[in-house]
Specification:
Pfam families: Helicase_C_3
Radius of gyration: 33 Å
InterPro entries: TFIIH_p52/Tfb2, XPB/Ssl2_N
Domain Helicase XPB/Ssl2 N-terminal: 373-487
Largest sheet: 4 strands, antiparallel
Number of helices: 24
Structural class: alpha+beta
GO molecular function, one term: ATPase activator activity
Protein name: Helicase XPB/Ssl2 N-terminal domain-containing protein
Number of domains: 4
């Protein structure tokens, strides 16, 4: 709602209170005159500067700033009371006085039914105040004259590494300790395949607060692991101490990468908001102050540190730089750089502006490449990093990842192809997949070897069977004449031992009981 709509929907007592606070010279008995005077006062270009700069109560000024910087156009009473309590502490008299002041000064308008009041922020006022506050914050940070000599932009690496993690779990036997932690050998193998490599944790002190498995894994990988667990992409089997993927993994793989990164950011913000209650405020100010320009970290810290608190053994600066800046870099929303004189700088990436500032970034999409795979005679497959997505997931079903980076390398082995055969792939479907995505440029030796492996597959078949032990051969022969038993017989050993499928044992026992036999079940 715009200010005019809020004023028109308010009663005359509310309008009089606003006019008296700002000492407006107008008729207090005419609603139309009050509305016109209030509109003229709020739309004055110097209104924001006169009100906020002159405000001596820094806590109240900060409260107005948070309301104006918030993207919501209305709040519930509980949300406003929660904001007041965070700013001034609990106390009914203080809460009531602060609420009345916000209404009296026209920052909020209480509209709606008496059963549930909704507090509206006039959209045009919020937009004007937000613009003024953004300019003020941008003036408080310093911008370098020259660009950095080197910078770090991880882009979509965390999405690709999440895919790498899920692919590894789907194709390998991942064992867990009694505490539910991946064995070190699995951790080392997974982390070595990621674009942004980390080391497994050694002997560390306290680690808690930043996620379910933050105490067990390094910062970035713990976020990936916790995200996959929270989205039901992986499941920890307590009985067998194993980690496996769920059917939802394949659906997640098919999602757009930008949707994945948005969901990852949403999960990170929710997780880190518990140890950092002011995280939303910090993100709003950071994005508005930085924008797309390089900003000196030192000056940005001065702007944001007052809004960050210590968290146990993490001091304010560590919380800001390690838990917020660094994690935003991992999420691809921030770039970190270094100037020639060694000073650190940061700026928002295009993705960061799109998510944090809600800007529409029009990217020039390059011509689509229809042959992303390069298959080498040494059984290596080269896959560009940007093409990982579903293609990489399918590729990992009959090959193993040997190297990640700008160019991801898969390798076809006898074991990887054997694994694919067990999942229902055939030499024909594998070669059709490779031909489709490599423009039929599949080396002949690779084709022939995959066909040879298929011929070797299935020479020996392993079954899990149960045994019906008959008292003598006559009973065994009798069993083989009963139709309900005969159809399940796989073989006979030494005349009186009958092999049947293990999964049919309960059904066979039921038939025997119905026929009057009294089987001794040794399960």
């Amino acid at each position: 709602m715009r200010l005019a709509d809020c004023l028109n929907s308010s009663d005359i007592q509310t309008l009089r209170a606003i006019a008296e606070h700002y000492q407006l010279d107008c008729s207090k008995s005419s609603k139309n005159a009050l509305i016109q005077s209030i509109l003229a006062h709020f739309h004055n270009r110097s209104f924001a500067e006169r009100v906020l700069v002159a405000e001596e109560d820094l806590t109240f000024r900060e409260m107005i700033t948070q309301i104006m910087m918030d993207k919501r156009s209305y709040f519930s009473r509980e949300e406003i009371v929660g904001l007041i309590r965070r700013m001034i502490g609990e106390g009914k008299e203080q809460e009531s006085a602060c609420m009345q002041r916000l209404l009296r000064e026209g920052w909020l308008f209480r509209l709606g039914s008496t059963a549930r009041h909704i507090f509206y922020v006039p959209e045009d006022v919020r937009k004007r105040m937000r613009h003024w506050l953004t300019q003020r914050m941008q003036q408080q940070v310093q911008r370098p004259v020259c660009p950095p000599i080197a910078y770090r932009d991880e882009n979509m690496a965390i999405v690709r590494d999440t895919m790498t993690f899920l692919s590894y779990v789907a194709r390998h036997d991942c064992r867990l300790t009694q505490d539910g932690v991946l064995f070190k050998r699995n951790q080392v193998a997974i982390l070595s395949l990621m674009e942004i490599m980390e080391q497994p944790l050694g002997q560390v002190g306290w680690r808690f607060g930043y996620g379910r498995r933050f105490r067990d894994y390094p910062d970035r990988f713990s976020l990936i692991y916790d995200y996959c667990y929270a989205r039901n992409l992986i499941i920890e089997h307590e009985d067998s101490c194993k980690l496996t993927c769920t059917p939802q993994t394949q659906e997640w793989m098919e999602d757009d990468d930008r949707d994945k990164i948005r969901d990852l950011f949403k999960y990170w913000r929710l997780t880190y908001r518990r140890p950092i209650p002011t995280l939303t405020t910090v993100l709003q100010r950071l994005s508005q102050a930085v924008g797309s320009d390089w900003v000196l970290v030192e000056s940005l810290n001065e702007l944001l540190l007052p809004h960050v608190n210590d968290y146990y053994y993490d001091n304010k600066q560590q919380v800001l730089e390690k838990r917020i800046y660094t994690m935003l870099v991992h999420l691809g929303l921030l770039c970190q750089g270094q100037l020639a004189d060694g000073r650190a700088v940061i700026r928002l990436t295009d993705l960061g502006r799109e998510i944090l500032l809600e800007e529409t970034i029009v990217e020039e999409s390059p011509a689509q490449v229809h042959m992303p795979l390069i298959i080498q005679p040494n059984f290596e497959i080269l896959l560009p990093g940007e093409e990982i997505g579903r293609l990489g997931w399918d590729l990992s079903q009959f090959s193993d990842v040997s190297k990640t980076g700008v160019m991801r390398i898969h390798r076809i082995t006898k074991q990887s192809v054997y694994r694919a055969f067990q999942e229902g792939w055939t030499a024909k479907t594998i070669l059709e997949f490779l031909g489709k995505h490599a423009g039929d440029q599949v080396p002949l030796n690779v084709v022939k070897q995959i066909q040879v492996w298929e011929k070797e597959y299935g020479k020996i078949v392993l079954y899990r069977s149960a045994i019906l032990e008959c008292r003598d051969q006559q009973v065994a022969v009798e069993m083989q004449t009963i139709p309900q038993i005969k159809e399940h017989v796989r073989g006979v050993l030494e005349g009186r031992y009958i092999l049947v499928p293990e999964e049919q044992l309960a059904c066979i026992a039921k038939h025997l009981q119905q026929l009057g036999y009294m089987p001794d079940l040794q399960l």
